[in-house]
Structure formats: structure tokens, C-alpha cells
Design goal:
Blueprint: H1 2-20, E1 25-26, E2 29-30, H2 36-43, E3 53-54, E4 59-65, E5 75-83, E6 88-96, H3 100-108, E7 112-117, E8 124-129, E9 133-139, E10 145-152, H4 153-177
Antiparallel strand pairs: 1-2, 3-4, 4-5, 5-6, 6-10, 7-8, 8-9, 9-10
Length: about 180
């Protein structure tokens, strides 16, 4: 009896500790957990992969797929971006814009809404916060497509830093032109 209780306690603690390290999940993969090798092996079972390339932002590889095999209405492409250690850092999903409300509802059931802009006409945007990631849904008004992004916090910070640096360089180039 004592061994059973001890085993149950260890199993419970293992489940709790494993879940505390679990990353934000999308399309069956976990940010910060899934590796490039695991993702590639799983994807090749059901979808078409483009040749891997290296991300200029993270220094890791990225894998791009088409919509074959996912079974998600309106899906166009999915890009999986890995960090320099080949651990999943972001999932970028491109799909038809008419799915905004359905995707918004699905994501809002899992994650905390940080900000939303949902006018009847115009750009639609929502940002959700998970403990280790940001989930964004961006549907520009004059487009037929939208992007759904699951991005680890450290990758998002690198992206914002790079955008600010690019803006600074552009401003400097513009000023030097005159």
C-alpha cells in the first residue's frame, strides 16, 4: 500500500513538473519543446515540405508547408521557425480571412486576450498571451488573407528589436539622402 501511494505521488509530481515545462501548442507541436527533426519527421508523413532554409532572425532553420494534409478549412501555408538550437520558436499560419471569427473564438478559449481590434469594416487584430508565447491574429482590411502567429517570447523580443533597428537604419538613410 505504501509503495502504491509513493508511486502515485511520484507520477503526480512528474505530471505537474512536465506540464510546467510544456510549451504553447499549435498544430500538434509545442513551442520551446519540439525540435526541427521531430517536426520534419511528423510533417513528412502528411504534407509537402519546401526545402529547409535558414531564418535570418533566429539563425535556425525554418520549414514551410502547403495546406495539404492538415484538414483545416482556409489554410494556405504554415511556416515553422526554429532557434539556433533547432527548438521550435514560432509557427506562422497563413489562411483565408473569412476564418477570423472562428480562429479568434478557438484561441480565446485557451489563452488570455491582451488586445483586440474587431471592427465590422477595417483591419482586424487580436493578441493573446500565454506564459511562454504571444499568439496574434492579423487580418488586414484590403486583403483576402490573414496570419495567425504563435511566437515564443524570446523570438518576439528579437523580432521587435530587429524591426526597431531596421527602422533606425531606414531613418538614417533617409536623413543622409537630404
Amino acid at each position: 500500500m505504501k509503495k502504491r501511494i509513493h508511486f502515485a505521488f511520484i507520477a503526480t509530481m512528474l505530471a505537474i513538473s512536465t506540464s510546467s515545462y510544456a510549451g504553447t501548442a499549435a498544430l500538434g507541436f509545442e513551442l520551446g519543446v519540439s525540435t526541427a527533426e521531430q517536426v520534419k519527421a511528423d510533417l513528412t508523413k502528411f504534407t509537402n515540405l519546401e526545402e529547409p532554409d535558414v531564418s535570418g532572425l533566429t539563425g535556425g532553420v525554418y520549414l514551410k508547408t502547403d495546406n495539404a494534409g492538415y484538414g483545416i478549412d482556409g489554410l494556405n501555408t504554415v511556416t515553422y521557425i526554429f532557434d539556433k538550437n533547432n527548438v521550435l520558436g514560432a509557427i506562422l499560419i497563413n489562411m483565408t480571412k473569412n476564418r477570423f471569427n472562428a480562429i479568434y473564438d478557438a484561441v480565446s478559449r485557451k489563452y488570455k486576450l491582451e488586445t483586440a481590434q474587431r471592427p465590422f469594416v477595417g483591419d482586424q487584430f487580436a493578441r493573446f498571451k500565454a506564459s511562454d508565447a504571444v499568439i496574434e491574429i492579423d487580418a488586414p482590411h484590403l486583403s483576402f488573407e490573414m496570419d495567425v502567429s504563435y511566437i515564443r517570447n524570446d523570438i518576439k523580443a528579437m523580432s521587435l528589436k530587429q524591426a526597431a533597428e531596421n527602422k533606425r537604419k531606414k531613418k538614417k538613410r533617409d536623413e543622409e539622402s537630404f
